[in-house]
Specification:
By secondary structure, this protein is an alpha/beta fold. It folds into two domains: about 200 residues, Aspartate Aminotransferase, domain 1 (Alpha-Beta Complex); about 250 residues, Aspartate Aminotransferase, domain 2 (3-Layer(aba) Sandwich), CATH 3.40.640. The chain contains 17 helices and 14 strands. A five-stranded mixed beta sheet has the order 2-8-7-6-5, sandwiched between helices. A three-stranded antiparallel beta sheet has the order 9-12-11. Helix 4 packs parallel to helix 12, helix 5 packs parallel to helix 6 and helix 15 crosses helix 17. The protein is globular and about 60 Å long. About 50% of the residues are buried. The chain binds pyridoxal-5'-phosphate (PLP). Pyridoxal-5'-phosphate (PLP) binds next to helix 5 and helix 6.
């Protein structure tokens, strides 16, 4: 596909040697181009919120990499092997064995998607008044921690909050900051550390193996558990393989296993790494935590051998998990994200650096430096990109951050970003070119652009359904 975008893993270069995806296309899905007047009407009707657009009105859909991957022929074939028994489906046992093999945890509870698993672990472990430190918040993760009565405290390294800082592992936990939190609130108030690899809200930034190893040692001293958001852990492993000494010759699967071995369990949105359109799981080592979660799952999701999924979904998830761990797959997945990142970088468009695993994050704070954060610059940037070309992206700034439950004020995150998320195995290099050119056009027109005012605000996870109007 592209050339010289992943030099470390391409081996020696003699002149131009391109790489290409390790698959070919067997089926296509037509997408529709719209006119500018059509898009103007659509975004107005959607309240300037890209989550409220109809997908039929979207040309290139970079809203999310969640559930938007193309499944392989094997996964589609797997759907035909669904065992739709209410209890004890064959596909559950296949999935359980696959998760144990790749992630190494003892017990598995399937859930309909990631937030189902977040709900279970939060309800199982958090008591009102507890504190959950983590390497930057994630929207649904923190929401479930708060609904269980906990308070999230950010302990990611300071570099993560600076979009231009080139630190290779911007997802790392600041262990001094964490230890200060432990000393301040007491270890008995901390049910677990909420660790994510890669860190979505920081720009898909990885955690190093050295950091998780040191985190484990620190938590052992205080008797605190570590639970992992494994949603993009295979992508995290790619960065460890590329950047961390001693891991260049290890396959991604081995790196994932070692990383997970420093944690007590994980929740997973299989709609990301695992290449399925729906699915998730919670996996833990502790027998008692498993017992609680397996009991809760029947209340909220479904029986513990299907957790809200059809048997065929579990089969596709097991196959997708195996495919997600293949080095060739990951190289082309992250290579495509980098290709887009390099086009934008060449044009001096401010994006989060280094480019992370699943998306390009446009730095709306710098692009729209004249729009104050309470006029939602990233929300407007996403709307402008849609107006220009029909490309759909999403806001990751003050709207996503929501309000502080204690004060009721907006939380003003230091990162005010627009995410161009690349679905896995879906778009071509030409789609990336069109995307980059549209970003450039919007960037060039930045001075004429004004902010937004929020005219409807839902109570929970407001970014999904909030509505806006342009400031005249
Ligand atoms: C998507 C996501 C979740 C939630 O998973 P869903 O499948 O959307 O419910 C949790 N954590 C991270 C890091 C995610 O990206």
């Amino acid at each position: 596909m592209t050339h010289e975008v992943v030099p470390q893993t391409m081996g020696q270069q003699f002149g131009r040697r391109s790489w290409a995806e390790p698959w070919k296309i067997k089926m296509v899905e037509p997408i529709r181009m719209t006119s500018r007047p059509e898009r103007e009407r659509a975004i107005r009707e959607a309240g300037y919120n890209t989550f409220l657009l109809r997908s039929d009105d979207v040309y290139i859909d970079l809203l999310t990499d969640s559930g938007t991957s193309a499944m392989s022929d094997r996964q589609w074939a797997g759907l035909m092997l669904g065992d739709e028994a209410y209890a004890g489906s064959r596909n559950f046992y296949r999935l359980e064995e696959t998760i144990q093999r790749y992630y190494g945890y003892k017990h598995l509870v399937p859930t309909h998607q990631g937030r189902g698993a977040e709900h279970l672990i939060s309800q199982a472990l958090i008591k009102p008044g507890d504190v959950i430190p983590g390497n930057m918040y994630f929207t649904t993760t923190r929401q479930h921690q708060e609904l269980a009565g906990g308070t999230f405290v950010d302990v990611i390294i300071a570099e993560a909050h600076d979009p231009a800082d080139p630190h290779p592992f911007k997802g790392n936990v600041d262990l001094d900051k964490l230890e200060a939190v432990i000393k301040r609130v007491g270890a008995d108030k901390i049910p677990y550390i909420s660790l994510a690899g890669t860190v979505n809200m920081a720009g898909g930034q990885p955690v190093s193996m050295a950091n998780v190893r040191a985190l484990r040692a620190l938590c052992d001293r205080y008797g605190i558990a570590v639970y992992l958001d494994a949603t993009r852990m295979a992508e995290n492993a790619f960065f460890i393989q590329e950047r961390e000494e001693g891991y260049a010759d290890l396959p991604i699967a081995a790196i994932v296993r070692e990383f997970c071995s420093y944690t007590d369990g994980a929740w997973m949105s299989a709609k990301k790494d695992s290449l399925v359109n729906i699915g998730g799981w919670l996996a833990v080592n502790d027998d008692e935590v498993f017992d609680t979660a397996r009991n809760l799952v029947v209340v909220y999701e479904g029986l513990h051998t299907y957790g809200g999924l059809a048997g065929r979904d579990m089969e596709a998830m097991a196959i997708g998990t195996e495919e997600s761990m293949q080095d060739d797959h990951m190289r082309s997945r992250i290579g495509q994200v980098r290709y887009l990142g390099e086009l934008l970088t060449d044009w001096d468009i401010p994006i989060v650096q280094p480019v992370g695993g699943h998306a390009i994050f446009l730095d709306a704070k710098r692009i729209y430096a004249h729009i104050p954060q309470n006029q939602f610059p990233a929300q407007m940037l996403a709307a402008q990109l849609y107006l220009d070309s029909g490309i759909r992206s999403m806001e990751r700034g003050v709207v996503s951050a929501g309000r502080d439950p204690a004060t009721g004020d907006h939380r003003y995150p230091s990162l005010e970003l627009v995410r161009l998320t690349i679905p896995r195995r879906v778009y071509t290099q030409a789609h990336m070119d069109v995307t980059a050119e549209s970003v450039k056009a919007v960037y060039d027109a930045r001075e004429q652009t004004r902010g937004l005012t929020m005219v409807y605000e839902p109570k929970y996870l407001r970014f999904f359904q909030a509505r806006f109007e342009p400031i005249a």
